[in-house]
Design goal:
Layout: H1 8-14, E1 21-25, H2 31-44, E2 51-56, H3 59-69, E3 78-82, H4 83-94, E4 105-106, H5 109-121, H6 124-132, H7 139-152, H8 168-185, E5 188-189, H9 193-204, H10 206-215, E6 216-221, H11 229-239, E7 246-250, H12 265-274, E8 282-285, E9 287-288, H13 293-302, E10 308-309, E11 317-323, H14 326-343, E12 357-361, H15 368-376, E13 381-383, H16 395-408, H17 413-422, H18 429-433, H19 440-450, H20 456-467, H21 476-490, H22 493-516, H23 524-532, E14 544-548, H24 549-552, E15 557-562, H25 573-578, H26 581-594, E16 597-606, E17 608-610, E18 616-618, H27 623-627
Parallel strand pairs: 1-7, 1-8, 2-3, 2-6, 4-5, 6-7, 9-10, 11-16, 12-14, 12-15, 13-14, 15-16
Antiparallel strand pairs: 17-18
Helix pairs in contact: 1-2, 4-9, 5-8, 9-10, 9-11, 13-26, 14-15, 16-17, 16-19, 16-20, 19-20, 20-21, 21-22
């Protein structure tokens, strides 16, 4: 099937020459295609040895662009990837300039919480501070969120008054400083550090930024409405004063990540000012090529004049329905989707399957009743997860994973302690700390000599596996297959099922890594880094998608059901209470939810809800139903 011709406005964007370029593209306006064709045009018309840099905010978006361009990760003159993956590569290549190793390890959030616990355990006054807040079960998470916010704003903990710990701000600064010390002593980073250290490299060593400017003559940034302070300033420091060939693409009406420090102002204000973007280089696409007439008309009620329909647009359908309770709401959604699957719909070309339907909620909790019913009827469904790291369930493969971490980073005391605890060797922690291990395999060999339990033969097998991962060309697939054979001989029933499932999961990540990584670059540290960044994660798309609005961003479906359309839920009660920019972001959330639908949208709400503490609470229909001029049935 041939692609439709680009519109005149789309084509002007694609063939734009030198200088900064801003594209504001409404939902369904062909943003991804225009960005892809722009990259293709620059590649086909390039003169010289420079490269192109295209940064996305998700691995899925990067994969989609690569697929449309029909290029792989090894394309010599084009880098497509999410911003964190790109920055992590800079840290691995240039981090030595600011005192980092070439192979720092990324700690996931659960590990970062453990590091924070170590901080509190390190001093009596910090232990007392933790004890004073022991009734707040979110205390540690809140501290970690505050540290994360500081890093997202590129604020360092270097404040002499923090040592006084006289107020909450000083306490946070001190905790932040000690938290960073433990991370760096273990050759580890958290997710926010990836941007912090990249900015530091560019800022403190301008010649490194200049090198990348010479390498990448054109830079394209997708979903620029989601840029936060750190991300924007990393890009700005990369470009410097000389680099002007920067393209930002996004839609301020879909800015929904304010809680993560994002602001569309970086695209619509700072970029225009900092890069002197002239009016003639600012484009806006409003013609919607994706959605039905009803969807477009209703979206324009939420965000006036946000999009125009095309001559080819189908009529479509939107309904709002209320039900006595959440149980009845879930029953109707399930029955309606099954009916559409069996009978189809005149506004949807071809058959309707579960895969081209989605159920959305402002939070996951509004879909719990539906999830129960899907399980009862054995109907496949999936959640799109935001956490991509592998959680090994079996003790055997959990041990294998911890050993891999130590193999690449023997300074990693956090995972060393976890491995000792798993092996019931906690008493040896002090002895190992007195030794300066520089070789991960030697450390694992030493641990092997201390094991006196039934786990000893299992660890011997893992030691052989780890040894196979130490060479220049790691044999991960062969190691996985050998561990599968060992599992078949050693484990039975449920235990074997857990081990085999864990091995299968790791091998899936390895296959994904091999597909996207040049053979010369493949190594254990890089593999574990890409796993931590989510680059090897294979998105599940079998069955019905259950999505929060934030995880639905960038996706599209023929049929969308938005559940839980009640005041306090959608819009969220916290946004209602705070007002201002928080409610403006809720307005964007409902716009994003509706525009995930290409043809049909259903808004459902219960008249009453069973609260977690057992009370039944009457519900009020969401204000957004009135704003969309929808009458409840």
């Amino acid at each position: 099937m041939n692609k439709p011709e680009l519109s005149p406005e789309q084509r002007r964007v694609v063939i734009h020459g030198e200088g900064p370029l801003l594209l504001i593209a409404s939902a369904g306006s062909g943003k991804t295609r225009v960005l892809t064709e722009r990259v293709r045009y620059l590649m086909e018309n390039k003169t010289g040895h420079y490269h192109l840099l295209a940064l996305t905010f998700t691995n899925k978006a990067a994969d989609e662009m690569r697929k449309r361009l029909d290029v792989d990760e090894e394309e010599e003159h084009l880098y497509i990837g999410n911003i964190h993956k790109f920055c992590m590569q800079i840290i691995c290549d240039r981090g030595v300039f600011i005192g980092l190793s070439r192979e720092p390890q990324i700690f996931e959030r659960k590990d970062c919480l453990d590091v924070l616990r170590q901080v509190f355990d390190s001093e009596p006054r910090l232990q007392q501070y933790l004890q004073e807040n022991s009734k707040n079960k979110y205390f540690l998470n809140n501290i970690l969120d505050n540290i994360s916010l500081e890093k997202k704003n590129l604020r360092s903990p270097c404040d002499d008054t923090a040592l006084l710990m006289d107020n909450e701000k000083q306490k946070l600064a001190y905790l932040y400083e000690k938290y960073n010390e433990i991370l760096l002593n273990q050759n580890a980073l958290d997710f926010d550090d990836i941007l912090v250290f990249t900015y530091q490299i560019f800022n403190e060593f301008p010649r490194i930024a200049a090198f990348y400017r010479r390498l990448y003559r054109y830079i394209c940034i997708d979903e620029a409405q989601d840029l936060n302070f750190a991300q924007y300033h990393v890009i700005k420091s990369l470009c410097g004063k000389e680099m002007k060939n920067l393209m930002l693409v996004g839609d301020p009406k879909q800015a929904i990540y304010g809680f993560n420090g994002a602001s569309s102002d970086f695209m619509t204000k700072h970029f225009i000012q900092d890069f002197d973007v002239p009016k003639e280089n600012q484009f806006e696409l409003t013609e919607n090529y994706r959605s039905s007439k009803r969807i477009i008309a209703t979206a324009n009620l939420l965000q006036p004049s946000s999009m125009k329909e095309t001559d080819q647009a189908k009529s479509g359908d939107i309904q709002a329905l209320s039900f006595p309770n959440e149980d009845a709401e879930a029953d109707w959604v399930l029955n309606r989707l099954q009916m559409l699957k069996q009978e189809g719909h005149p506004d949807v070309e071809g058959a309707i399957s579960l895969e081209n339907c989605a159920v959305l909620g402002r939070t996951r909790y509004v879909m719990l009743k539906l999830e129960e019913k899907l399980k009862q009827h054995d109907i496949p469904y999936y959640y799109k997860r935001t956490q991509d790291y592998i959680e090994s369930e079996s003790e055997f493969i959990r041990c294998f994973e911890l050993g891999m971490r130590l193999l690449m980073n023997p300074q990693n005391r956090l995972h060393f302690q976890k491995l000792l605890k798993l092996l019931h060797l906690e008493d040896f922690g002090g002895e190992i700390d007195r030794q300066n291990w520089q070789n991960g395999f030697e450390l694992l060999t030493w641990i092997n000599c201390q094991i006196k339990t039934d786990f000893a033969p299992h660890f011997e097998t893992l030691l052989t596996a780890w040894q196979s991962l130490t060479g220049d060309q790691i044999k991960f697939r062969e190691v996985g297959e050998d561990l599968e054979k060992y599992s078949q001989k050693t484990y039975v029933d449920e235990e074997r099922a857990l081990v085999d499932n864990d091995i299968r999961l790791w091998l899936e990540h390895w296959r994904s890594y091999v597909k996207q990584t040049d053979s010369e670059r493949r190594c254990l540290p890089d593999f574990l880094t890409q796993v931590s960044l989510g680059a090897t994660h294979q998105l599940q798309n079998h069955g019905l998608a259950l999505l929060t609005v934030h995880t639905a961003k960038g996706l599209e479906f023929e049929v969308v059901c938005i559940m839980g359309m009640c005041e306090g839920v959608f819009p969220d009660y916290r946004a209602v209470k705070k007002g201002g920019i928080f409610m403006r972001e809720e307005d964007n959330n409902i716009y994003v939810a509706l525009t995930r639908s290409k043809r049909i949208a259903y808004f459902t709400s219960p008249l009453q809800k069973l609260m977690p503490w057992g009370a039944i609470k009457r519900q009020q229909a969401s204000r957004y139903l009135k704003k969309m001029k929808l009458t409840l049935k």
